[in-house]
Design brief:
Two copies of one chain form a homodimer.
Chain A lengths: L2 H13 L13 E5 L2 E11 L10 H17 L3 E11 L4 H15 L3 E7 L6 E10 L15 E5 L4 H10 L7 H4 L5 H7 L5 E5 L3 H12 L1 E5 L13 H6 L5 E6 L10 E8 L5 E3 L2 E2 L11
Parallel strand pairs in A: 3-4, 8-11
Antiparallel strand pairs in A: 1-2, 2-5, 3-5, 6-9, 6-10, 7-9, 8-10, 11-12
Helix pairs in contact in A: 2-3, 2-6
């Protein structure tokens, strides 16, 4: 990320003055309205940036829905509906097929949207609206020293799927092309966690962000991380994104309602936000995928 | 609009199965949640399509906010907040200036959003969330035979402003560059109207759409339409968009809470959805700006 991009995002954060607004420091905005707590997410996908040319538009549409619902999952929110922003191009029917499949699979309605024409590159954006099932809604900022660090799901499967799609790998492509947001698990976990986020940009980078937001140090044991990749690719799996596992912290004596792996411990803020196998990882560069 | 685009939008409408979903046949989605009625809009702006090169990004940002809030105004909804989708480019600070000015002017918070990089053309999208002040929320579909057709605001000002911005005209550019959504008027009108929409794509085209949605014929008297342009440009003013006036229907004996001009009468559905000075306008082609 360039310094200009960082400055822009910082300026946006300053504009987000609403007390309930966490959308620019977190993956979703939380809004109290009419006795309900709504969670709103917005994710865009740009051609040539967010998917490889080998990926079908059907799968791109699925993924657009899945990544937004994954942000809801990390907030313990049930989806209420989605709004689509769509730049018309060719192959629109392939996109529709994937959109329809994802909406049916995740049982979420399309509420509305906007279509525009004239864009050179396809750009799709989705806003997902969810209803929090538990308050306070989990954020990235609640990890406390002494908490365990957990991963629900695994990492590396999307990497293997990507390599199969774009190269000569023979692994299952589905984890990359058609990820599944952990909606039910996110809702079940939300009353028990101190912090939670989905792993979209790489486990280490996302853990680094959680540590920064929580003002603590996260110490991760690399061998404890469940990976869906050969052992020889463990290092890569910790840095690859797109897996949509749930990274969370909770007191280690918590009876968790769903399977999750203890992958480390939260410490008081030390010299760096993140350690891996007791080695400091202070610089987020190289820890994951930033976009 | 090409036949492919129309087919795509029709397919999207079929996907929008939620009973409350009106977003793809209307300008906004209406959602009942927690005893409140939320109104959600989504509008995107693409470089080279939705603004001329002479328009500053500061004004583009303002307009992005204004057009979404105008959709809320037509629903009688108060803004709760907006979510921004932003493809990073250069001149991002100019965009931020306009965004900040619009958010302050309309007293609406930025709740969150997503930034992406790598797009060739700037593409901005905004989702606005509003709270309906009156239910049922006005739609395009409620115009009834015998109702008066009214315009709150005027048309043609944006056309004159555009010509001043891009050519040699000397008119005030503000109606084009910095339109003002009629939020307070929309809220005041919403209990009294049978149908309402904002005039974003041209009065005649938008009236044609209202007639189609309501299954009636709208008969408009061109000389009764208030225009913010020279009389010699009246025909153009009725077809130009971007004015964000409110077009609505109501019984002619209604005591309206705000100034509005009676510009025609709703009839039973006839041979064409729209007549102008008693002449049938059956084909929407040429009635306005379609995007």
């Amino acid at each position: 990320m360039s310094s200009g991009e960082i400055a822009f995002i910082d300026s946006l954060r300053e504009l987000a003055v609403h007390p309930a607004a966490r959308g620019l420091t977190d993956d979703a905005a939380v809004l109290e309205i009419g006795g309900e707590t709504l969670v709103l997410t917005k994710d865009a996908m740009v051609e040539g940036v967010h998917w490889p040319p080998q990926q079908s538009l059907t799968d791109v549409a699925w993924k657009l829905v899945a990544v937004n619902l994954s942000d809801l999952a990390a907030k313990g929110a049930e989806p209420v509906g989605v709004m689509l922003g769509y730049a018309l191009g060719s192959d629109d029917s392939a996109f529709l097929d994937g959109l329809k499949a994802a909406l049916e699979s995740f049982d979420v309605p399309l509420l509305g949207g906007d279509t525009v024409s004239g864009s050179d590159r396809r750009t799709f954006s989705l806003t997902a609206i969810g209803r929090a099932t538990h308050t306070p809604v989990p954020s990235r900022a609640g990890a406390r020293p002494g908490d365990g660090i957990y991963l629900c799901g695994s990492v590396g499967g999307a990497m293997m799927g990507f390599e199969a799609l774009t190269g000569t790998g023979r692994a299952d492509r589905t984890p990359f092309t058609r990820p599944t947001p952990l909606l039910a698990k996110g809702c079940a976990l939300s009353p028990h966690v101190t912090a939670m986020m989905d792993v979209s940009d790489g486990l280490l980078l996302d853990a680094w962000r959680m540590a920064q937001a929580s003002k603590v140090t996260l110490s991760i044991d690399s061998t404890a991380v469940p990976i869906a990749a050969p052992e020889s690719r463990r290092d890569d799996a910790l840095r690859w994104g797109d897996d949509y596992a749930l990274l969370f912290t909770a007191p280690t004596d918590t009876a968790l309602p769903t399977d999750a792996s203890l992958i480390g411990i939260v410490h008081e803020a030390g010299a760096t936000p993140l350690t891996l196998d007791e080695e400091a990882l202070g610089d987020p560069e190289g820890l994951g995928y930033r976009h």
